[in-house]
Recover the amino acids of this structure.
């Protein structure tokens, strides 16, 4: 009967927020422990609910845990109530969110302590000047995410959604505080953090506004915002009663698209993805929180929650699901390519998140509900892991630039190991979590696109190709990241010397997340699809349409090999570019330079050896042999370079560069310009309009009189015509 | 139309023209002092219009309040701010042309409206004295606004004192 | 007398006076002159009200709404004038001007 | 007038009597003990606040008081929904004579007025403590609240004009209260000149209504206008002129331009009052006029209101983007907020249920009240200590006054309409009613506008959190009364969102009156 206490789950972190904000603000350590305690309590209760939900099994979809005791306001004959709703997917979220959050919280305790060299040369460890506030804010963030997950009502959902938006604003701009210079944060960084926080807030606000509009329309057409009532067959049919709003566009399509607009912004999908890479200016735990457990997941969860609406729309001939698939599929490949050209360790992960979210949406869009949902869960674990591990690296090394790292695995083996696990999961390599979920998505896309009984679907085929390509590029950039960061020789001795293994409070969360990353995928293997049975068997709340459930067949087997092949292919290419001959200190990234220059460099090296061979022509045989051997090796490597590595580098580099350039340009000049430009245009208008306010009251009065007169004359003329 | 009617109209026209002329003088005269005197003339003209409309009490009030109080106040203010009076090169501000255009349109609109609307006319003659009935109305039906306005006058008194005191 | 002069005459006179007053209040530089314009407008309204009372009222003795309204307008005009002139004097003291165009510290 | 009438008028009478008492005592005490006079004013407002439900409940003696704890307010609001103490019970003769009605709408605005008064009074103690004529200020302030309530209760052109002028004159006085301050002087005279011209124009419109119908009573005028189509042009023409006066009070574009100047120059507590009191009272008049007189011409005034709503919110929001003075920024913000309320006014036209629009407007008013007052209270608290009213001077406020900074965030979120705040609720209802009334495009424009507004609301917050504390800037302390007012506003802003039922019922109750008049 734990389910009756579901509403308390978000209360603990929210309470922790209140306590820290009001009482223990000045005491850092205590604040941190209060925050952690809040999450632990939330986690305990969530796990209780989760286990109870598991016990219910697929039945839960038909009879979800539901209660709406808080009367918010009456509307017509109905009332809007707040409460909780836990269906199978919701319960899975209840398991994932607090678990990941707890790890992030524990990790933050040490992470938000900075070390710097004091005046006397000693290393000083010091809490971030706003340590307690950090924990207050992430508690609020976690609490609102949990509130969102258990919401029984779209309005309640939206409230939590908006609180999260505000938290993201405050946290992304967390270091936009002047006076932090002793913490390695300079003015430029402060400026970037400020700009990033505003950008994140305003961009997601666009989506919020769309979502709110959709919500109001939904309320008016359906008459309720309660999920269970809304998705009862009557509820959605109500939408078709009224006149279609715009031409052939039906109400369900319009509303679904508006709601999807909220997701596009919150989950950073094209074309509103621009805020997410910049959001890296926040502290790393915040990045992990935003990217894994809370904010962007909320966007996907919105589509999952509203899935019956999308299904209903597609049943009545709407195109909202196609839009979702298209945007998801496009974003998946688009962001992956952009990720190729990043040198900031966190930015690579940021683009990777965008790309992976595109995966999920593409899956949801083509109807692979279970696969998309499962990827949401697994992704949260391994992306949190990757971020936290990357954060540990940054913390230890003191830079974000991968080109200044290298060979770090020797210095921080545990971090390396956990990062490796996360990276393998992200690439989709057996047996880690990402493999199972990604494979599932590819399988579904393959099945629906090429082997569907209802004939081939070009859109789904596009999605499959796009996702498969994206999987390849994902493996490539993840491999690149792995090799640049941990392998090869240190490229910057200063940073390398600075590096050290993470303290316990940092690596333990990493280890736990790595454990989850390793095992969670087995929740849903093609052989034993427990998750599919749980989430997909009985369909969704209010819309008991079972999802198509295939037994393990040949296609699944093929798909496993295809996806593994793609992943290993990408990794292999990455190895050839970055692992085979590691990038040296000061060397540019192979992708960053043109092939001709590289070849010229290589040739020069070879000529030098040849020259040495020449002057040693009458030297010892041994020396000659050595020289000859070296020469042979060089020649071989030259050949290898020219034919294989260069070819690959040139091809991939060319493609990557062109695409990254192109899209980067598009990003910077078109989308950013629209967002910033609309700001500056309104600024211009404001500057112009304010000149009306001359300060002369008679001008004002004249305008007022003319206004009243204009209205009067308007009416007068109207009556004569 | 009988002779009396013609005379009535002529008298009305005369008063109207004088009133409007005084009004125009009020807004056009460069010297504010002279303008204030023209304003007094307008007040008298309006009082005459009231008399024509058989609102004798109102005509008296008009002269007492407007001429006796408001005009005197204005004259005082003009004299207190005398420094401004002669130094002005023009008494009309830069937006006057716009204002004139807008007001011209407004006047045409009003004129059309006045001619176009079928006004309700009962044409009842006034039999007897309106003043006692007015007094009764003020202390019965209109007692509330009467009281409110007394409070307002008190507030005005205090306010004017606060604002204008040295 | 009433039967000989159409209502429109009075209304037109009022409209004209109103427009003259409005012009004064919009176009004069001197704040006191602006105030005078406002007084003209109020007088015009009063002519309207009294004319409507005289022509439209079914019982001019018992139903004196228009007259009463006009009476209150006169009273409020006096109150308004008092406050307005006090403000003019105050601004004259602090700024040494009563030119409305120069009273423009607050803008944009 | 019988004894009952005095009961029905008691909140206003208490306020006016207290104001007179304050004037007298101040004369007696020669300007000393002004703080005590402030408490007298507070007491009067509280008494008036308490009297309101008593009046409202008078006709429902069967109401079971003393039921479960904590439910009193909800019960009151719920009960109000069924009991009507308004003109619908009156005889036709009474309606014809009615100058002033003590109906549901009046009661709603009594509550609004008293709450506004109380919150601003709490904030003005510290502000007025060092200033001259503080005693008179409290008296004037009570009169302003009383006239604001009277404006809402006026059912007659004469009373409308009278209360409007009363409110205006008292506002002019309060705006020019800082006699040594050039800006205050200038604000007052601009406010005055603009207001006088606008009210003269409005008066001309009122006289046209009188000419068409021979009556000053709104219900009677409405009767004539509805039955006699001869007066269509005239009514609309008059409405346009009357909009000048009402629009001036509400600060609607194009009658808004006095507002930024007057707001900036006025003493800040007065600014706070101006941004709420006259505005919401103006909406009360507009509601009465629209529903009781003009309802039949809804096609026409919907165009007018929609047009005004669009330009008002757009202009307010856009110009606010470039403001650096917080008072001026909030002035433009309040112009924009009035634009959102006008969306609700326009959606009254909805064929299904006009009361939905009325409800939305009333809910928005209540939500806006607390939010805006809260924001102004923060400004007042900061200004009292430092004299700073510029955004750039707000640096490091989180260090200097954490409570102020955090609450300011909250109020700004509410003004921007982001949950969980009252502002969101208001926008939700207003936009919802617009969509329901077939004015979806208006809602869309409103939503876009609320998006723009986020930018400048966050401009206020940013320096408070992210900029360093200026050299030598004092830590800001403020007196407990102000703190109390702030906390009350914040809690109300939160509770309205979380538990909107009481407010919803109250708004339904306030709108009840129009069921009678709407034809």
């Amino acid at each position: 009967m734990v389910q009756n206490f579901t509403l308390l789950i978000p209360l603990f972190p929210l309470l922790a927020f209140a306590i820290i904000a009001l009482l223990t603000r000045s005491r850092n350590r205590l604040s941190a422990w209060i925050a952690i305690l809040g999450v632990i309590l939330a986690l305990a209760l969530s796990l209780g609910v989760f286990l109870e939900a598991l016990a219910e099994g697929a039945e839960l979809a038909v009879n979800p845990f539901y209660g709406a005791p808080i009367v918010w306001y009456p509307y017509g004959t109905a009332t809007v109530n707040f409460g909780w709703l836990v269906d199978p997917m919701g319960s899975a979220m209840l398991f994932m969110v607090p678990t990941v959050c707890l790890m992030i919280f524990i990790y933050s305790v040490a992470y938000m302590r900075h070390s710097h060299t004091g005046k006397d040369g000693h290393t000083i460890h010091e809490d971030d000047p706003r340590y307690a506030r950090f924990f207050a804010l992430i508690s609020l963030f976690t609490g609102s995410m949990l509130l969102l997950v258990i919401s029984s009502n779209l309005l309640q959902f939206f409230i939590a959604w908006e609180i999260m938006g505000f938290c993201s604003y405050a946290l992304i701009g967390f270091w936009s505080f002047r006076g932090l210079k002793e913490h390695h944060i300079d003015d430029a960084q402060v400026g970037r953090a400020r700009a990033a926080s505003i950008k994140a807030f305003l961009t997601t606000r666009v989506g919020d506004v769309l979502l709110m509009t959709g919500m109001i329309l939904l309320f008016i057409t359906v008459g309720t915002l309660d999920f269970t009532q809304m998705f009862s067959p009557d509820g959605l049919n109500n939408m078709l009663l009224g006149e279609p709003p715009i031409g052939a566009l039906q109400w369900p399509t319009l509303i679904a698209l508006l709601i999807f607009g909220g997701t596009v912004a919150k989950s950073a999908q094209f074309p509103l993805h621009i805020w997410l890479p910049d959001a890296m200016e926040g502290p790393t735990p915040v990045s992990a929180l935003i990217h894994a457990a809370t904010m962007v997941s909320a966007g996907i969860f919105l589509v999952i929650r509203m899935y019956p609406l999308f299904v209903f729309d597609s049943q009545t001939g709407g195109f909202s699901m196609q839009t979702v698939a298209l945007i998801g599929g496009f974003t998946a490949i688009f962001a992956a390519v952009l990720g190729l050209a990043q040198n900031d360790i966190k930015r690579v992960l940021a683009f990777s998140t965008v790309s992976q979210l595109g995966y999920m949406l593409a899956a949801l869009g083509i109807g692979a509900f279970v696969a998309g949902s499962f990827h949401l869960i697994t992704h949260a674990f391994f992306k949190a892991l990757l971020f936290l591990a990357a954060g540990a690296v940054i913390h230890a090394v003191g830079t974000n630039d991968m080109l200044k790292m290298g060979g770090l695995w020797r210095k921080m083996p545990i971090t390396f190991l956990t990062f490796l696990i996360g990276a393998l999961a992200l690439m989709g390599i057996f047996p880690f979590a990402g493999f199972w979920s990604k494979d599932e998505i590819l399988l579904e896309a393959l099945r629906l696109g090429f082997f569907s009984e209802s004939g081939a679907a070009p859109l789904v085929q596009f999605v499959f190709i796009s996702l498969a390509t994206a999987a390849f590029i994902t493996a490539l950039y993840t491999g690149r990241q792995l090799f640049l960061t941990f392998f090869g020789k240190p490229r910057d001795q200063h940073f390398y010397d600075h590096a050290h293994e993470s303290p316990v409070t940092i690596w333990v969360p990493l280890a736990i997340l790595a454990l989850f990353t390793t095992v969670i995928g087995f929740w849903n293997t093609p052989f034993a699809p427990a998750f599919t049975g749980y989430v997909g068997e009985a369909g969704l709340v209010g819309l008991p349409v079972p999802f198509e459930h295939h037994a393990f067949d040949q296609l699944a087997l093929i798909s496993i090999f295809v996806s593994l092949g793609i992943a290993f292919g990408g990794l292999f290419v990455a190895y050839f570019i970055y692992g085979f001959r590691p990038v040296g200190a000061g060397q540019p990234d192979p992708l960053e330079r043109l092939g001709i220059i590289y070849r010229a460099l290589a040739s020069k090296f070879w000529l030098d050896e040849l020259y040495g061979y020449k002057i040693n022509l009458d030297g010892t045989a041994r020396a000659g042999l050595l020289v000859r051997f070296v020469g042979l090796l060089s020649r071989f490597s030259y050949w290898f370079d020219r034919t294989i590595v260069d070819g690959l580098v040139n091809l991939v580099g060319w493609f990557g560069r062109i695409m990254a350039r192109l899209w980067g340009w598009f990003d910077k000049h078109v989308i950013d310009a629209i967002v910033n430009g609309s700001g500056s245009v309104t600024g211009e208008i404001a500057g112009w309009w304010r000149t009306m306010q001359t300060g002369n009251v008679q001008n004002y009065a004249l305008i007022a009189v003319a206004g009243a007169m204009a209205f009067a004359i308007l009416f007068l003329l109207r009556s004569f015509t | 139309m009988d002779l009396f009617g013609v005379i009535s109209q002529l008298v009305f026209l005369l008063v109207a023209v004088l009133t409007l002329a005084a009004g125009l003088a009020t807004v056009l005269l460069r010297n504010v002092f002279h303008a204030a005197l023209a304003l007094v003339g307008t007040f008298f003209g309006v009082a005459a219009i009231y008399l024509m409309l058989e609102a004798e009490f109102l005509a008296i009030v008009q002269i007492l309040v407007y001429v006796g109080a408001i005009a005197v106040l204005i004259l005082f203010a003009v004299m207190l701010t005398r420094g401004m009076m002669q130094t002005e090169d023009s008494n009309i501000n830069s937006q006057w042309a716009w204002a004139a255009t807008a007001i011209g349109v407004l006047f045409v609109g009003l004129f059309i409206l006045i001619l176009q609307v079928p006004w309700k006319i009962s044409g009842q003659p006034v039999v007897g004295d309106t003043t006692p009935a007015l007094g009764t109305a003020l202390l019965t039906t209109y007692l509330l606004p009467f009281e409110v306005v007394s409070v307002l006058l008190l507030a005005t008194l205090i306010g004017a004192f606060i604002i204008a005191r040295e | 007398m009433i039967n000989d002069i159409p209502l429109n005459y009075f209304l037109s006179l009022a409209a004209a006076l109103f427009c003259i007053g409005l012009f004064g209040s919009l176009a004069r530089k001197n704040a006191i002159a602006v105030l005078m314009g406002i007084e003209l407008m109020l007088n015009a309204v009063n002519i309207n009200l009294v004319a409507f009372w005289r022509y439209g009222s079914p019982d001019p003795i018992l139903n004196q709404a228009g007259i009463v309204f006009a009476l209150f307008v006169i009273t409020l005009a006096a109150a308004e004038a008092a406050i307005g002139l006090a403000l003019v004097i105050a601004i004259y003291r602090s700024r040494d001007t009563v030119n409305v165009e120069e009273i423009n510290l607050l803008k944009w | 007038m019988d004894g009952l009438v005095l009961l029905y008028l008691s909140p206003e009478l208490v306020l006016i009597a207290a104001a007179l008492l304050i004037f007298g005592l101040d004369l007696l005490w020669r300007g000393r003990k002004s703080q005590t006079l402030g408490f007298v004013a507070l007491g009067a407002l509280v008494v008036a606040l308490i009297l309101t439900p008593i009046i409202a409940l008078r006709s429902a003696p069967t109401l079971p008081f003393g039921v479960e704890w904590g439910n009193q307010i909800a019960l009151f609001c719920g009960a109000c929904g069924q009991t009507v103490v308004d003109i619908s019970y009156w005889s036709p003769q009474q309606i014809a004579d009615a100058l002033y009605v003590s109906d549901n709408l009046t009661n709603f605005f009594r509550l609004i007025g008293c709450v506004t008064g109380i919150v601003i009074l709490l904030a003005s103690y510290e502000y007025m403590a060092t200033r001259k004529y503080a005693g008179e200020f409290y008296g004037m302030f009570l009169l302003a609240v009383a006239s604001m309530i009277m404006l809402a209760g006026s059912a007659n052109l004469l009373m409308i004009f009278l209360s409007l002028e009363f409110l205006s004159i008292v506002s002019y006085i309060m705006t020019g209260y800082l006699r040594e301050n050039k800006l205050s002087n200038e604000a007052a005279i601009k406010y005055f000149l603009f207001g006088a011209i606008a009210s003269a124009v409005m008066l001309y419109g009122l006289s046209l209504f009188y000419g068409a119908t021979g009556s000053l009573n709104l219900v009677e005028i409405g009767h004539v206008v509805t039955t006699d189509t001869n007066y269509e042009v005239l009514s609309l023409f008059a409405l346009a002129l009357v909009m000048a006066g009402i629009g001036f009070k509400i600060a609607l574009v194009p009658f808004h331009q006095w507002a930024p100047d007057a707001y900036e120059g006025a003493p800040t507590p007065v600014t706070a009052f101006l941004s709420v009191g006259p505005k919401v009272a103006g909406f009360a008049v507009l509601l009465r006029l629209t529903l009781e007189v003009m309802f039949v011409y809804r096609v026409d005034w919907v165009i007018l209101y929609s047009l005004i709503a669009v330009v008002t919110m757009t202009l307010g929001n856009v110009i606010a983007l470039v403001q650096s003075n917080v008072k001026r920024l909030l002035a433009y913000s309040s112009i924009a907020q009035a634009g959102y309320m006008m969306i609700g006014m326009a959606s009254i036209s909805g064929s299904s249920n006009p009361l939905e629009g009325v409800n939305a407007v009333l809910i928005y008013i209540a939500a806006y009240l607390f939010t805006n007052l809260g924001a102004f209270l923060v400004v007042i608290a900061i200004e009292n200590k430092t004299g700073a009213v510029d955004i750039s001077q707000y640096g490091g406020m989180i260090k200097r006054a954490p409570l102020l900074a955090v609450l300011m965030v909250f109020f700004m979120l509410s003004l921007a309409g982001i949950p969980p705040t009252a502002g969101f609720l208001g926008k939700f209802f207003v936009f919802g009613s617009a969509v329901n009334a077939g004015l979806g495009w208006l809602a869309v424009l409103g939503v876009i506008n609320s998006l723009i507004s986020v930018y400048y609301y966050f401009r206020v917050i940013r320096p408070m959190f992210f900029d360093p504390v200026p050299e030598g800037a004092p830590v800001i302390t403020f007196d407990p009364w102000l703190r109390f007012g702030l906390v009350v506003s914040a809690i109300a802003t939160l509770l309205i969102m979380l538990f909107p039922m009481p407010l919803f019922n109250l708004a339904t109750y306030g709108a009840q009156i129009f069921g009678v008049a709407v034809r």
Observations:
- The longest helix of chain D spans residues 354-386.
- The interface with chain B takes residues 1, 9, 16, 19-20, 23, 97, 99-100, 133, 136, 139-140, 143, 150, 158-159, 162-163, 165-166, 169-170, 172-173, 176-177, 179, 188, 208, 211-214, 230-231, 233-234, 237 of chain D (CB under 8 Å).
